[in-house]
Amino acid sequence: MPTSGAAPAAAIPASVSPERAFLALAAPFGLAFLLAIGPFEGADEFAHFLRAFQVSEGGLLARRVDRRVGGWMPRSIGVTRLETLEDIPLHRDRTHDPARIRRMLALPLDPADRLFLDFPNSALASPVSYLPQAAAMGLGRLLGLSPLLLLYLGRGLNLAAWTLLTHAAIRAAPLRKWLLVALALSPVSLFQASTLSADAATNALAALWLACCLRERRETAPLAAGRLALLAALAAALALSKAPYGVLVLLWFLLPWRRFGSRARFAAASAALVGVSAALAVSWAVAVHAINLPHARYNPGYRSGQALVPGADPDLQLARLLAHPGGYAAVVARSAVASAGPVAISFVGQMGWDVVLPAWHALACLALLAALAVVDEPGAGRLGAGARLWLVAVGALAALAAATLLYLVWTPVGGAVIQGLHGRYLIPVAGAVLVGASPGQAVPAPRAAGPVTAGLLGLSLLATLVVLVTRYYA
Q1: DSSP assignment of 128-195, as one string?
Q2: What is the Cα–Cα distance from 168 to 177, expressed in whole angstroms?
Q3: What pTM does this model have?
Q4: Taking the domains of the chain in order of start, what are their residue ranges?
Q5: Residue 4 has pLDDT above 50, yes or no
C-alpha cells in the first residue's frame, strides 16, 4: 500500500481521448444547459428565434416594411415571449415560473394568425448560421408543435450540429487537441451552443477550419480533390456565417505550396478559394445593407426595445472611419485598454442577459486555457515560428474586423470607444491566437493531464449549471 496521499500510478488512466472526453461532457451538459436556460434567455435569443423561423419558411432575406425590419410571424410567438420572459432579464430578483412555462408548452402555433415582428439585428445574419435551428422549426411546424417547443427543439438541433462539427475539429487537429476541447467547453461557448444563437455555427466552423488548415499544413502528399472541396466548402460557410470571421479564411496560407505541385497551381487555388469566400461575404453584406435601418430612420413607433443604438449609423460611421483612419486607430487603442479586463472575464464568465460567474471561476477557466496552450500530448510535433506568427496575425485581424463591425453598427457616430465589446466575440479567433502564441515545441503533458483536464472541465460545467438553475428558477 502507498504510504503517501498520492494515488498509485496504476490507478491513473493511461490516457483519455480528447475526442471522447469532449463528447462525454458536451452531450450531457449541453442538454442540461439547454433545459436550464430560461426561455429566450440566450443573448438576443428571441431575435434569433424569429430569424430562424423565417429561414425555416424559406425567407432567406428579412423583410423591410413601413421603415421596420423583420418578418410576418405567428402571433403566438410574440405571446409566448411575453408570457415566459416578461421583465426577467436584467432583474436578478425575478425568476421564471415553471407553471407558466408548462402552460405555454401547450399554446398552439396557429400559423395563419400573423403580425409583423421586428428583429433588425438578427435580420443581418445569413441563413447559414440558422440551418440547424431552421430545420428543427420546419420539422416542428409539421408536427404541430407550440412556439415554446419549437424553441427547445431548435436549441437541440443547434447543439447537435455544434457538437458534431466541434468533435470533427478535435479529431482533425494535429496538435493542441485539449486546448480546443477546453475552448469549446468553456461556460460561455457551451451556453451559446445550447441556445438558438447563430454564434454556435460560427464557433464550430472556425474551430473546424483551423483544425483542417493545421492538418493540411503537416501532411506532405498532394492535396486530394475531396480534401480541397471540403476546405472550399468550409471557407465559404465561414465567410457567410459572420463576415468578420471570414478573415480566418486567410489561414489557408498555412498550407505548403508543394502540396499543389507548383507555385502557380497554389496561387490559382488560393485566388479561387479566397476570392469566392470574399465575394460571398461582400454579396451578403450588400444584400442586407439594402434592408438595414439605423435608429434615426427606424419607425419611431416600433424602435423602442429593439437592438438599435441612438446616434449609430453604419454609413456615416464608415465614411468617418475612411476619412480619419488615424482617429479610428486611437479609438481601437482606447477601447483595448478600457475593455481588456471585462472582455477577458466575459470571454468565459458572462452569459445571456445577466448571468455572471464568480471571478474565481472565470479566472480558473482562463488559467486552464493558458496551461493547455503550453502543454500537449507527446508526439504532437512542432509548429514553426512563421506559422505561429501567421496564426496570431490572422486571428488578431479577424478580432479587429469583429470590433470594427461593432464600431459601425453599435457605436454612435464619432464615439470615442467601441461599444458592445464582449468576450464571446473572441471565441472564433481564440484557437488561432492561442495556438500561435504558444511555444513551437509544447511541453509534453504528464500522464494524468487528460483525466485531470476532463475532470476540471466537468467541475466547471457543473458549477456553471448550478449558477444557471439558481438564476433562472431558484
Answers
A1: GGGHHHHHHHHHHHHHT--HHHHHHHHHHHHHHHHHHHHHHHHHH-SS-HHHHHHHHTSHHHHHHHTS
A2: 11
A3: 0.94
A4: 22-300+309-473
A5: no
